[in-house]
Each structure stands twice: as C-alpha cells, then as structure tokens.
C-alpha cells in the first residue's frame, strides 16, 4: 500500500498522456498517441530535451570529477579540520533549494552567466557534487589503505596510484554518484526557474510553463519520458552492479 | 643461482637514533641498528613493541620524529616511499584485487615504464621463482592464502629491490602451511640475495629463518644476536621468556634463566650426579614428542621440565617426588636483575 501510495502519483501521468482530449484529463475508453507525436515533432520540446540532456550530462561529469577528488582528498588527509570541510561541502544538500536558487541568481548576474548553459551547469554541479562526495566516500570507507601503500611502495607516483589502484576500487561509488548527479540535474526545477529565462529552456522548465499557461497534455507525455529516462538510468546502474557482483562471485 | 639478484653492492641499512612519537606515546625509542647487506634480519616482539612502526619508517610510510635512516651510507630520510625502491610484503598481502597475478607482479616495472617484453620476461621469471607459473592469469581472489602470499613476494621482488620488508607475511596462514612457507622464504632469500627485514611476533619463525634477530620491547632493542646466541645466552628476563621458554631461578647472586629441556629429572634419590632441587610432580601434559612436567618445589615457583617422551625411562607419574639436576652451563645469569 505504502509503495502504491509513493508510486501512483508518478504513474498517473501515463494514462493522462494517452488522452485524446486537448486538455489534461483521464482518457475514457479511447487512447491516443497524439501528445507523444506532438512532443517528438515539436521543435520547442525537442530542443528542451536536448538542453536538459546536455546540462545533465555536463553536470554529471563535472560533479563526479569534483566530488570524487574531494572525497579522495578528505580520505587521505586525516586532520581535525577534514570533518569540518566535509560538512561544509555537504551544505548544498542541507540548505533549502529556494535559498540556493536566490544565491545563484545573485551570483550569476555579475558573472554574466544568467540564462546560459554555463550558469545552469555550474549551479547544478554545486548541488550535485555533494551527492558524489557521499557515494564515493562510502566506497572509500571499504577501500584497504594498504593497497595505496603497496602501490607507492612499488614506485607509483600519487597520480598513477589514483588512476590504477584507487579509482578502479571505488568505481561503484563513482558510478552511483554520477547517476545521482545526472538525475538531480535532469529534473531540477527550483534553481532552474531562477536562473534561466529564454536562452536555456530545460525540460522541467517547459513542463512548468506548459502547466501554468495552458493545460496541455503534452506535459504529461513529457513527464512520462522524464520518468522513463530516470528509470532507464537506474536500470543501467542496476545491471552494471549485478554484472559486477556476478564476476566477483565467479572469481571466488 | 642468483637469477633474481639485486644490485649486490646495495642493501646495507643503518638506523641511527631512530625515534617515533605519536603524540605523547613513544612508539620507537632511539634505536641504533646496522642491517648487513643481504642478511635476513628479524624484528621480533609482542604487539606494541614498535617493530611494525620501525618497518613503516624504513618503508617511508611514517615520518621520523628523530634520528636517521641510511641506505649504504646515504640518508633516505627525505626520500618519499615511492622512490625508496624497497620491496614490501604487507600483512594481508594487499594484492590489487582488480588486476591479474601477472599485472600485480609486473606493476612495479610497469610504473617504471619498462618495455613490455622485459616486463613479461621478468614476470615469467618471478612466477617461476614462487612456483605459480600456471596461475598468472587468475585474479588474487581466486588463489589460496599461501598462493596469495607468494604472489605478494613475487610482486615485491620483481623490481630487484636492494631491501625487502616483510610485515608478518605468514600471519594469515595456518600452522602447517606456515612451516612450509618458512622453508620457501628462506630458500628464496638465499637465491635472490636481497636484504630481508622481517617483522613477526612468532618466535619459531624468527628462530628458523633469521640470520640475526632483534628482540624489541617498548620501542627499544632488548637484545640483538643470532638465533643461537639469543636462545643460549639471553641477557634479560624478557628476552629469555619471549624467545623460547624459561624457568627463572632466584639465586643468592641474581636470577638465572633455565630452559625446560635442559633439566634432568629422576625419581627422588635416583639422580645420577648431584640433585640441585627436589620437588613433586604436579602435572604432566603430553605433546607427543615431548612431555611437559610441572614440578612443585618448596619455596619456589613451579619449574617446567620438558622430557622427550621416548626417553621417559622412569614412567613418571603425577604426585611422585623427583630430583632435578642440570649442568653448570645450562642456567644463564640474567643481567637485568
């Protein structure tokens, strides 16, 4: 029951997206793909898909790089300040998004990055990097520090040790972090509303406007695609981790 | 037979006044030690004696609080671990789990950017040395503990280091395997001619493999010598009790250490020669080859006597009165009493 309660609101978009009517409604007996057809033929919607994709992928790449480096740095330096630094880096998760949104707005104006790809990617990266920090730190907690010592002892400089020993061992955490970062950016709306206007028009932003200005069922179709991409990303990660577990099993 | 020999002119280590503090705790306290090129030196001590800390300082993983480490007369104090060129076998082996055995062994040469063919040839040589030729393409997780230990050894020796550091490398193996691996390790030491610095808390390992043993306690060197010297002439109560077993006898001129197997035992009044003590057998524990007899002596601690089972002519029983005797050289006077 609880599960249905959690999932149903998301699933309601599916029948609504199949309505033959021109406004948001539950279909009664007859279904139609017209809203999907419109979604995939409208240049505006397609451009929003592309923009969201570009921003989400860039965010995932940047946030994963930064979050992973931060996690490894905090793992290697055991100082009384490192926990303070870690807490500081996790702040974007704790601060209400609306406050972050205002802060980004104020910050991006003088930088001239308002309503640009760079501005959105920057903002999403700041929001997503803490997620990567958390998942990679969890992987590092299980990493045997003797492996790092062994690599150094065998003559590998720090960078080689990182690339050839540490990264392969924490790969699951890095993947999970990248996935979370992608999804965060893919359906981010609060900050996006503040810092984008005409030039950059992400998918959630277009849906927001679609609902506000007219009750176009294309929004429901877009929601279905949005959910599908998110679920697809999770499915890929689940398959990857299952394969990983199976090879590990075979090795034993 | 030195097929994997390192540069034979290298590998002498000198520790001078080496000290390590962790906050207010002194883990290693002013240690002076000369390690000869090519020798098998064991650091033996209980946990917390500073032996592993000492090894980690030699490896370059711990900063030195005071003192210096010299390799062939040159200070390596400021040389980072990755440029010291010392091989190391870690406790638990620390093999790279995502690499094959071959990639593990070739790692040191690979990061030194040696040509592929040279690495392959060297890996073959090392696999042969540790008798794992058929296992090169497996991952460490697919090997037994003893095989993993040999991979760790091959990996540490692959770049022909002048010094090999071993941190309790046999700790994870069962007893029977441990003895087998001790022989292999000693054999490999002789073949490669590298200086081995071996850390263990196991006195049997220390006795059976080492050229010299350093007994450590509380961050200091308690006694240093060949296995035979240390066993026959322990200078302190700690050395006598930690390496082998000892009875401690308080005499008017000091305390003497007396090994349980050096005591003659006979039923009361039947000792050939002079009986030095008389007592009663309180308990007998049978170990197959030997029997341990605990003898209660009036006014003293119980004395342990080891008797070869096949030589127990008198069929001694519990509760029986006995005479104890030993030769003049058997009891060693300790210096710290």
What is the CATH C-level name of chain A? Mainly Alpha
The largest inter-chain interface, given as chain pair and residues per side, is: A-B, 21 and 30 residues
Rounded to an integer in angstroms, the radius of gyration calculated over CA atoms of chain A is 22 Å
CATH superfamily of the largest domain in chain B: P-loop containing nucleotide triphosphate hydrolases
Descriptive notes:
The complex is a heterodimer of chains A (252) and B (337). With 252 residues, chain A is an all-alpha fold. Chain A has helices spanning 2-11, 13-17, 34-41, 43-76, 82-94, 97-111, 117-141, 145-153, 158-169, 171-186, 190-195, 203-213, 218-251. Helices cover 79% and strands 0% of the residues of chain A. The longest helix of chain A is centred in the first third of the chain and has 34 residues, at 43-76. The two termini of chain A are 40 Å apart. Helices cover 25% and strands 31% of the residues of chain B. In chain B, the strands form 4 sheets. Chain B has a 6-stranded mixed beta sheet with strand order 6-7-8-3-9-10, with helices on both faces. A 5-stranded antiparallel beta sheet of chain B has the order 13-17-14-15-16, with no helix packed on it. A 4-stranded antiparallel beta sheet of chain B has the order 2-1-4-5, with helices on one face. Chain B folds into 2 domains: 13-237, Rossmann fold (3-Layer(aba) Sandwich), CATH 3.40.50.300; 248-333, OB fold (Dihydrolipoamide Acetyltransferase, E2P) (Beta Barrel). Chains A and B meet through helix 8 and helix 9 of A and helix 2 of B.
């Amino acid at each position: 029951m609880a599960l249905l309660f959690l999932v149903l609101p998301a699933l309601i978009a599916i029948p609504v997206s199949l309505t033959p009517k021109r406004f948001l409604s539950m279909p009664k007996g007859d279904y139609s793909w017209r809203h999907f057809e419109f979604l995939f033929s409208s240049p505006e919607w397609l451009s929003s898909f592309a923009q969201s994709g570009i921003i989400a992928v860039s965010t995932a790449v940047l946030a994963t790089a930064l979050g992973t480096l931060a996690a490894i740095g905090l793992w290697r330096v055991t100082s009384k300040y490192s926990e303070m630094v870690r807490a500081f880096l996790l702040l974007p998760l704790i601060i209400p998004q609306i406050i972050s949104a205002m802060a980004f707005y104020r910050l991006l104006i003088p930088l001239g990055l308002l309503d640009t790809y760079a501005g959105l990617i920057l903002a999403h990266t700041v929001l997503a990097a803490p997620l990567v920090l958390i998942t990679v730190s969890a992987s590092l907690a299980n990493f045997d520090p003797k492996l790092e010592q062994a690599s150094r002892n065998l003559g590998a400089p720090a960078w080689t040790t990182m690339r050839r020993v540490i990264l392969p061992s924490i790969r699951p955490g890095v993947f999970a972090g990248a996935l979370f970062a992608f999804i965060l950016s893919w359906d981010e709306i609060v900050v996006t509303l503040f810092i984008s206007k005409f030039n950059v028009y992400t998918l959630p932003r277009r849906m927001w406007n679609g609902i506000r200005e007219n009750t176009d069922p294309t929004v429901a179709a877009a929601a279905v695609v949005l959910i599908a991409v998110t679920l697809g990303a999770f499915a890929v990660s689940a398959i990857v981790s299952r394969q990983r577990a199976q090879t590990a099993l075979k090795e034993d | 037979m030195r097929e994997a020999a390192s540069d034979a002119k290298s590998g002498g280590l000198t520790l001078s006044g080496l000290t390590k503090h962790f906050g207010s705790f002194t883990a290693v306290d002013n240690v002076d030690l000369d390690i000869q090129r090519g020798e098998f030196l064991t650091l033996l001590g209980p946990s917390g004696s500073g032996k592993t800390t000492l090894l980690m300082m030699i490896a370059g993983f711990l900063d030195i609080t005071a003192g210096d480490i010299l390799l062939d007369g040159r200070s390596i104090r400021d040389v980072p671990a990755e440029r010291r060129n010392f091989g190391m076998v870690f406790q638990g082996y620390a093999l790279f789990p995502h690499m094959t055995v071959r990639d593990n062994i070739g790692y040191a040469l690979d990061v030194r950017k040696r040509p592929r063919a040279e690495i392959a040839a060297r890996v073959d040589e090392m696999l042969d040395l540790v008798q794992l030729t058929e296992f090169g393409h497996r991952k460490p997780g697919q090997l037994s503990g003893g095989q993993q230990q040999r991979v760790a050894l091959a990996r540490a020796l692959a770049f022909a280091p002048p010094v090999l550091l071993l941190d309790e490398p046999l700790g994870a193996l069962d007893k029977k395997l441990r003895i087998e691996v001790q022989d292999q390790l000693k054999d490999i030491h002789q073949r490669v001619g590298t200086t081995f610095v071996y850390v263990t808390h196991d006195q049997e390992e220390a006795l059976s493999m080492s050229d010299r043993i350093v007994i450590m306690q509380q961050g200091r060197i308690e006694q240093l010598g060949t296995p035979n010297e240390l066993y026959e002439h322990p200078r302190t109560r700690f050395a006598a009790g930690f390496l082998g077993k000892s009875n401690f006898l308080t005499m008017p001129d000091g305390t003497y250490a007396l090994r349980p197997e050096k005591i003659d035992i006979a039923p009361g009044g039947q000792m050939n020669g002079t009986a030095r003590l008389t007592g009663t057998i309180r308990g007998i524990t049978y170990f197959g080859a030997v029997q341990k007899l605990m003898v209660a002596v009036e006014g003293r601690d119980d004395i342990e006597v080891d008797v070869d089972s096949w030589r127990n002519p008198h069929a001694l029983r519990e509760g029986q009165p006995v005479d104890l005797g030993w030769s003049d050289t058997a009891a060693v006077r300790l210096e710290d009493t």
